[in-house]
């Protein structure tokens, strides 16, 4: 009997891939990263493949690198595999051609995902795999979690049998992240399936000096063509060989598969052809329709390349008159989507050659892009379309296309739930444990042996306070439903705030149960509910329960952790398991998780389980709504129209309903929309103490969310201030009768506490308090009014603000605000500073990663504008090309500046102000005052150009803004700068052009979940470095310094904000490439992020992160360009590392190795410090000259 | 060359100098360096149960950071999700016990009565040669009587003794109304060794920052007097081994403790100050002293203990009176 487990599609595939390979060359990319992470973990634990060897798992610098290493290993005779998706697969394309061209057995496991086009999407469709269909690889599709496991095995066998590389793919997120019941293949079964002889044959084809040959020649017109044709027999044989592999699999494992699978009426007239998980939405509809009227079927294409024409024709009933081919991809400009074209050509040829008697009408439809839901209702609409007299030749389903009118209408109320399956939906907030508890629930139920279970988890796009919706199904039958639970029997709402904002009964069936975690007592609950929620409850006849889980948790000593309690209530109410049995299983799970760590934690959780029921109340429901309380609006009434209509709809979770016409055609969205989304995600917010405050600006400087803003203003303005508006006399000489306010934007504050940590003030006798503190806030109306008044106060004149001090910067308007970054993010304060200093003339190229997600993920974005409508222009190209992309922005700016200067000179007479033209052309623009003067001149110029006719004037108007020096910023994380974009960064720094590269260095790939980069420190544990990072962190600063023409700074805001400020200003003012490497604390480091600034201080003072600047200007002026800005280390590296789990885990798992690496790390820090000290004492002649300008000097 | 082998808790040590719980034993390298420097045994740093529990809760909190958003379902490899103090300590103990050829004694500082035995069992399984129970109550509870405190100590010792087979020592605070009587009671319940004394770490006040400052200060030789006195009293009065700790700066302090009757002499502060290699000086110094005095270790041990059958109170009092007379000679009359 094979073991039955609950796992997701990624684990299902990786579990086989790992056991049937010798090498995994890996690189992180959502949604495939988990496969690579598991491989790395298994290898670090010494898990072997089925032949008794621990596979080598190696992280590369990009997917291109992973494919290259794989190609080499294959030529070296090793069995090799990799895991990827989306852009990663695209980066492998050159090697796919090579590997296929050389007939090399290998398997690529792909969690298929959308491509970055008008926007990036991490979610699933087939755009990536369709983009490689021309490479010569086999494309093998899996439709479910079990299939991802089984087809992985078939792929590894078939590649050895056919000699063709196999790309095995399944739908990203929908299958890769769905938990479902899977029967695992044993090692014996896999050994039986993949005979050793095949491995030996593969090995025998390897390069070897013992049997030398040359492979990879350059060929000429005489033979390239013929050579390309030599492989035909291999492709011709492959469908049959693949089918044989599937038959062999069935003999070994008992589960039958075929290349093309037909379900339905053998005499069907209407058939849907589909690939991937979508088939599981089609099958129940076909069964339903056939029960009613018959004549429908579905044909599932499992092998897509080589296209199995014969098998396809064999499987398709002769009776078919109409076919709808559904493609989960989009090829703009093509005659149809790829599967549609393949089906057409197969049928056309069969009909014209007489192989088939009739030629069915074939129509093509697109569905499910970017994990758009694909439901039985949509399938029904497709079949209905096939029944129409003239079905649309091309259509879409699942959206409302009101522009080209291609979309089919569908009736969402059509559902085909399995009556024996229970559906449950839970609303939680990211990091509150809801998703974890639900995974646990599924495992509890799925492990019973009698029950099948499925779990799928939907997140919104924020990294802090994000809303999660868990969709769970359980039942006695296998669960094949790759779409959200639409008729939930049970809905759990784990936070009251969610209830006030979204319709939590969206997925509930009539008569379902709703459990609310409510701070209000049961007898007050009904009256506290918003009217629309009451209406829905009454309309659906909901059985309503509530519990104050937060209170029970506190009483049990569990703090804010309510998940055990809510899980217990779910089991108690839903009855999916007998109550006592369920409780015992929950307790067992708790014991297993915590027993070794603390009997106390176990006891508290058990207590919580026991006490939950006493606090669970059933709430009587009146027959109709009685309340008038409205749902909270997503955005205020005074928001711009686009925000009120489009953005608000997305915020309410109803973005699926937006028609095509509502959305921009080219991915262009308005700036600064986060300001309209008052998220109120924290119950504790910063509260300013005006009396204790010394107005230093430190808190505002470090605030990751731009919620602390300062202004000074004439005291008499206070006469109009609302109650609760706080102020203090301005602490500055020469400005009497002036007040100062540090305004907390309480509705946007995430309660991270960095401000409290940054505050240097300790009120006498209150050592635990500061001049800014976190305090609970229930009603934010006072704060809201205060913010409104504060915003009416005039902004302080930039000319009167001292840019050179941290204190001064607090008065500069941030043009990056209220992002969805993690609470306490270590990256965003740097971006905020960038915008305060240079935002109104900045262009930003942002590498894909955390900063592109909190910076550019819809619905709302944080890059904002000032009162004049100016602000940072932001764009994201890709992950790997960001430096080049940013350089392009610079080149365009330089070209247009040049054009502007030329035209300005040419129009000198017409403009009629020689002094103005002269100043515009030649006045310096390095410092703020100079830039302000130029901005003023630019305004004058534009005024003079107004109404001026002629091509040159039009030219000048179009590019005049470039006369104000454009500040180009190239921003990204260490995964980009140290790894995938390293070559580009290097090249751009070497270009000598005036760009500013800002590396937000978290020392891991934070966005994809903490994989090691070349920035990860020695000895730290990260994903892909599960056994501890074995090599030193790359010193990018030293690399960049070697050019002599690059301004370089290493900064850490938490250790020395003044140095950070200085570095940003110098870098921007420097006429050439600049590199700022900014220490960014991150939740991936494993500690309470509130201590982030403290850790920055320790990183610097232990020598891990020495602060430095390298300024080529100094060398040109005859001084030492290398400035060491931090003091000699006064802490040991262990003092810094001790607080972070990333370092501590290795001490747990392998203390000897941990000590060895720690000793090396300390030695490395000492050595580097000595080297830096030596650099700081050299003469200028010891450094490379900036060869772009000047004589050889110093 | 005198024979320095010593029996402590029934363990055969090559000499009576023992590295007591401290920062050096927080790593395998540290433990190895102590063994290389010649100590007779190593007591590992204390496993503070409260700290472990806090750590467990803290990591549980951190674990909730998992699943924060769609792309990142966790931030550390799955195998390592929940490192905690216990696992780390046990792993270190396991590796250290293998790495050195002297006994490694685990030190456990528990808080709640129930968990001592579970922890003790884990430590035994991980390869501890013996356990040292570091029973340390923060004396902030004003309702607990002296009798309660003693009863709790006895309960813990009894429970642990019933749970593990390895020898069990107990490290005591000097703040009992009747230390001697309590030591006899512990001896009665079967404790294998008495470690005298635990240092009561007391916070200080920072007058500039107006803050309470916690912190550890290293001990000074003066602090040896109190434990030495009690060892001298207890010598031959209890079946349990006697271990002296506090104030061992150089080999003379070792000798003094031996003369007072200690089976083993423990040092932490001096090793932290001067490095693990300092232990070599302590052992060699003892060796040289014995040679110079032409004494065996057995003969020296307890040479200046309170003689059997002498009423300890009288002996103490006599010492006290003698001290006062000596002080008058040095400083003149104190009136």
Could you explain how this protein is built, in words?
The complex is a heterodimer of chains A (1194) and B (335). Chain A contains 44 helices and 38 strands. Chain A is an alpha/beta fold. Chain A has five domains: 4-253, Rossmann fold, CATH 3.40.50.970; 261-408, Rossmann fold (3-Layer(aba) Sandwich), CATH 3.40.50; 422-619, 3-Layer(aba) Sandwich (Pyruvate-ferredoxin Oxidoreductase, domain 3); 671-812, Alpha-Beta Plaits (2-Layer Sandwich); 1002-1182, Rossmann fold (3-Layer(aba) Sandwich), CATH 3.40.50. In chain A, the strands form seven sheets. Chain A has a nine-stranded mixed sheet with strand order 1-8-18-19-17-20-21-22-23, sandwiched between helices. Chain A has an eight-stranded mixed sheet with strand order 30-29-31-32-36-35-37-38, sandwiched between helices. In chain A, α29 (828-838) crosses α39 (1057-1069). The longest helix of chain A is centred in the last third of the chain and has 26 residues, at 1151-1176. The model of chain A has no long low-confidence stretch (mean pLDDT 95). Chain B contains twelve helices and twelve strands. Chain B folds into two domains: 6-304, TIM Barrel; 309-335. Chain B has helices at 28-36, 49-63, 85-99, 115-125, 146-163, 179-188, 225-234, 251-260, 269-274, 278-293, 297-300, 312-331; strands at residues 6-8, 11-13, 17-19, 41-48, 104-109, 130-134, 168-172, 193-196, 204-206, 211-213, 241-244, 264-267. The model of chain B has no long low-confidence stretch (mean pLDDT 85). With 335 residues, chain B is of the alpha/beta class. An eight-stranded parallel beta barrel of chain B has the order 3-4-5-6-7-8-11-12, surrounded by nine helices. At the A-B interface, α2, α23, α43 and α44 of A face α2, α3 and α4 of B.
Shape of chain A: globular
- CATH homologous superfamily identity of the largest domain in chain B: Aldolase class I
Strand element count of chain B: 12
Helix content of chain A: 25-40%
Distance between the termini of chain B: 51 Å
Number of domains of chain A: 5
The strand order across the widest sheet of chain A is 1-8-18-19-17-20-21-22-23
N-to-C SSE string of chain B, H for helix and E for strand = EEEHEHHEHEHEHEEEHEHEHHHH
* CATH level-two architecture of the largest domain in chain A: 3-Layer(aba) Sandwich
Show the largest interface: A-B, 69 and 50 residues
Gyration radius of chain A (Cα, Å) is: 32 Å
H/I helix tally of chain B: 12
């Amino acid at each position: 009997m094979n073991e039955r487990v609950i796992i997701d599609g990624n684990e299902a595939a990786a579990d086989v891939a790992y056991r049937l390979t010798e090498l995994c060359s890996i690189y992180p990319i959502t949604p495939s990263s988990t496969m690579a992470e598991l491989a790395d973990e298994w290898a670090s634990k010494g898990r072997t493949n089925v032949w008794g060897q621990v596979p080598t798992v190696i992280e590369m610098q990009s997917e291109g690198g992973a494919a290259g290493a794989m190609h080499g290993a294959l030529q070296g005779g090793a069995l090799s595999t990799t895991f990827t998706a989306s852009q990663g697969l695209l980066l492998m394309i050159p090697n796919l051609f090579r590997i296929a061209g050389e007939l090399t057995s290998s398997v690529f496991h792909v969690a298929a995902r959308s491509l970055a086009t008008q926007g990036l999407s991490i979610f699933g469709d087939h755009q990536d795999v369709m983009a490689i269909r021309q490479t010569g690889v086999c494309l093998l599709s899996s439709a479910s979690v079990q299939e991802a496991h089984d087809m992985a095995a078939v792929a590894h066998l078939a590649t050895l049998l056919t000699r063709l590389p196999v790309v095995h793919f399944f739908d990203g997120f929908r299958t890769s992240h769905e938990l479902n019941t899977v029967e695992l293949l044993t090692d014996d079964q896999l050994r039986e399936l993949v005979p050793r002889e095949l491995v030996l044959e593969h090995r025998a084809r390897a390069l070897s000096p013992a049997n030398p040959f040359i492979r990879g020649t350059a060929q000429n017109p005489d033979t390239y063509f013929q050579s390309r044709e030599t492989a035909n027999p291999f492709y011709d044989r492959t469908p049959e060989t693949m089918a044989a592999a599937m038959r062999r699999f069935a003999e070994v494992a008992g589960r039958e598969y075929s290349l093309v699978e037909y379900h339905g009426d053998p005499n069907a007239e209407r058939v849907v052809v589909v690939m991937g998980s979508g088939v599981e939405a089609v099958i129940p509809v076909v069964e339903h329709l056939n029960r009613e009227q018959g004549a429908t079927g579905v044909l599932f294409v499992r092998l897509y390349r080589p296209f199995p024409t014969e098998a396809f024709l064999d499987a398709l009933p002769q009776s078919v008159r109409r076919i709808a081919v559904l493609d989960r991809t989009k090829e703009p400009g093509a005659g149809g989507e790829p599967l549609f074209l393949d089906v057409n050509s197969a049928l056309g040829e069969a009909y014209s050659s007489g192989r088939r008697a009739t030629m069915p009408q074939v129509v093509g439809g697109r569905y499910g892009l970017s994990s758009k839901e694909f439901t039985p209702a949509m399938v029904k609409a497709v079949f209905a379309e096939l029944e129409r007299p003239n079905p649309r030749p091309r259509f879409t389903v699942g959206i409302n296309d009101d522009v080209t009118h291609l979309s089919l209408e569908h009736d969402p109320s059509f559902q085909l739930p399995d009556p024996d399956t229970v559906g449950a939906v839970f609303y939680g907030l990211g990091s509150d444990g809801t998703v974890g508890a639900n995974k646990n629930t599924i495992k509890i139920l799925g492990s019973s042996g009698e029950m099948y279970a499925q779990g799928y988890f939907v997140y919104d796009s924020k990294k802090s306070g994000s809303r999660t919706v868990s969709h769970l199904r359980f039942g006695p039958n296998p669960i094949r439903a790759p779409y959200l639970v639409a008729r939930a029997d049970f809905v759990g709402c784990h936070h009251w705030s969610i209830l006030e904002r979204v319709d939590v009964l969206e997925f509930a069936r009539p008569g379902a149960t709703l459990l609310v975690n409510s701070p209000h007592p049961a007898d007050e609950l009904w009256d506290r509910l918003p009217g629309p929620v009451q209406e829905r409850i009454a309309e659906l006849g909901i059985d309503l329960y509530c519990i104050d889980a937060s209170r029970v948790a506190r009483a049990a000593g569990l703090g804010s952790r309510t998940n055990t309690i809510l899980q217990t209530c779910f089991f108690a109410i839903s009855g999916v398991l007998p109550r006592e049995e369920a409780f015992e299983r929950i307790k067992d799970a708790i014991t297993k998780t915590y027993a070794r760590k603390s009997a106390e934690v176990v006891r508290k959780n058990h207590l919580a389980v026991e006490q939950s029921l006493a606090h669970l109340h059933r709430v009587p429901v009146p027959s109709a709504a009685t309340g008038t309380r409205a749902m909270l609006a997503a955005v205020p009434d005074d928001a711009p129209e686009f925000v009120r209509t489009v953005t608000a709809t997305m915020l309410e979770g109803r973005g699926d309903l937006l028609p095509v016409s509502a959305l921009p055609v080219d991915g262009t969205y308005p700036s600064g929309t986060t300001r309209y989304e008052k998220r109120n995600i924290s119950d504790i917010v910063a509260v300013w103490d005006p009396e204790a405050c010394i107005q230093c600006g430190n808190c505002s400087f470090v605030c990751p969310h731009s919620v602390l803003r300062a202004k000074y203003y004439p005291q008499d303005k206070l006469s109009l201030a609302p109650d609760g508006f706080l102020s203090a006399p301005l602490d500055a000489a020469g400005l009497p009768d002036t007040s100062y306010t540090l305004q907390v934007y309480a509705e946007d504050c995430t309660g991270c506490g960095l401000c409290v940590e940054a505050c240097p003030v300790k009120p006498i006798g209150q050592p635990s308090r500061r001049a800014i503190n976190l305090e609970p806030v229930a009603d934010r109306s006072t704060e809201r009014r205060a913010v409104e008044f504060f915003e009416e106060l005039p902004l302080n004149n930039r000319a009167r603000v001292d840019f050179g001090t941290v204190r001064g910067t607090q008065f500069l308007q941030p043009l990056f605000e209220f992002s969805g970054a993690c609470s306490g993010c270590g990256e965003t304060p740097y971006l905020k500073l960038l915008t305060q200093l240079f935002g109104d003339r900045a262009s930003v190229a942002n590498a894909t990663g955390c900063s592109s997600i909190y910076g550019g993920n819809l619905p709302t974005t944080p890059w904002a504008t000032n009162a004049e409508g100016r602000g940072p222009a932001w764009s994201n190209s890709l992950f790997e090309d960001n430096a080049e992309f940013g350089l392009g922005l610079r080149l365009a700016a330089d070209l247009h500046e040049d054009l502007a200067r030329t035209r300005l000179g040419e129009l000198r007479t017409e403009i009629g102000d020689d002094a103005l033209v002269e100043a515009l052309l030649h006045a310096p623009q390095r410092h703020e005052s100079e830039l302000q003067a130029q901005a003023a001149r630019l305004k004058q110029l534009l005024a003079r150009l107004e109404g001026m006719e002629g091509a040159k004037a039009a030219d000048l108007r179009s590019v005049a803004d470039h006369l104000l020096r454009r500040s180009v910023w190239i921003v990204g994380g260490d995964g980009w700068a140290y790894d995938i974009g390293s070559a580009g960064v290097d090249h751009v720094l070497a270009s000598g052009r005036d760009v500013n590269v800002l590396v937000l260095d978290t020392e891991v790939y934070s966005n994809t979940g903490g994989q090691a980069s070349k920035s990860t420190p020695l000895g730290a544990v990260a994903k892909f470095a599960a056994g501890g990072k074995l090599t030193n962190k790359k010193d990018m600063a030293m690399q960049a310094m070697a050019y002599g023409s690059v301004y370089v700074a290493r900064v850490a805001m938490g250790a020395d904000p003044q140095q950070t400020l200085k570095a940003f200003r110098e870098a921007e003012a420097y006429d050439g490439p600049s590199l700022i490497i900014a220490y960014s604390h991150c939740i991936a480091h494993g500690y309470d992020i509130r201590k982030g600034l403290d850790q920055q201080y320790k990183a610097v003072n232990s020598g891990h992160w020495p602060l430095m600047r390298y300024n080529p200007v100094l060398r040109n002026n005859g001084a030492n360009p290398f400035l060491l800005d931090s003091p000699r280390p006064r802490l040991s590296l262990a003092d810094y590392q001790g607080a972070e789990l990333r370092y501590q885990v290795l001490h747990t798992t392998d203390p000897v190795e941990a000590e060895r690496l720690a000793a090396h790390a300390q030695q490395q820090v000492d050595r580097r410090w000595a080297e830096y000290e030596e650099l700081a004492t050299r003469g200028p002649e010891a450094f490379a000259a900036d060869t772009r300008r000047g004589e050889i000097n110093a | 060359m005198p024979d320095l082998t010593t029996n402590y808790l029934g363990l055969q040590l090559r000499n009576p100098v023992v590295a007591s719980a401290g920062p050096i034993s927080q790593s395998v390298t540290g433990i190895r360096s102590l063994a290389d420097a010649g100590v007779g045994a190593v007591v590992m740093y204390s496993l503070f149960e409260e700290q472990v529990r806090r750590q467990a809760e803290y990591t549980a909190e951190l674990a909730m950071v998992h699943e924060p958003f769609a792309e990142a379902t966790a931030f550390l490899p799955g195998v390592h999700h929940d490192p905690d103090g216990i696992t780390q300590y046990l792993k270190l103990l396991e590796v250290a016990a293998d790495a050195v050829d002297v006994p490694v004694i685990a030190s456990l500082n528990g808080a709640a009565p129930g968990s001592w035995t579970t922890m003790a069992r884990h430590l035994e399984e991980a390869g501890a040669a013996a356990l040292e129970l570091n029973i340390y109550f923060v004396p902030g509870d004003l309702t607990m009587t002296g009798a309660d405190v003693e009863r709790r100590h006895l309960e813990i010792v009894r429970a642990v003794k019933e749970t593990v087979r390895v020898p069990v020592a107990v490290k005591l605070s000097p703040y009992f109304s009747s230390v001697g009587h309590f030591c006899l009671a512990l001896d009665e319940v079967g404790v294998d060794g008495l470690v005298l004394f635990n240092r009561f770490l007391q916070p200080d006040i920072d007058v500039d920052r107006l803050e309470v400052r916690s912190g550890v200060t290293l001990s000074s030789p003066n602090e040896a007097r109190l434990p030495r006195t009690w060892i001298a009293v207890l010598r031959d009065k209890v079946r349990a081994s006697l271990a002296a700790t506090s104030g061992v700066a150089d080999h003379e302090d070792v000798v003094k403790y031996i003369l007072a009757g200690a089976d083993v002499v423990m040092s932490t502060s001096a090793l932290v100050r001067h490095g693990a290699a300092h232990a070599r000086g302590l052992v060699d110094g003892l060796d040289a002293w014995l040679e110079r005095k032409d004494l065996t270790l057995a003969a020296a041990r307890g040479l200046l203990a309170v003689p059997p059958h002498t009423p300890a109170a009288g002996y103490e009092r006599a010492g006290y009176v003698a001290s006062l007379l000596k002080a008058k000679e040095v400083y003149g009359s104190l009136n």
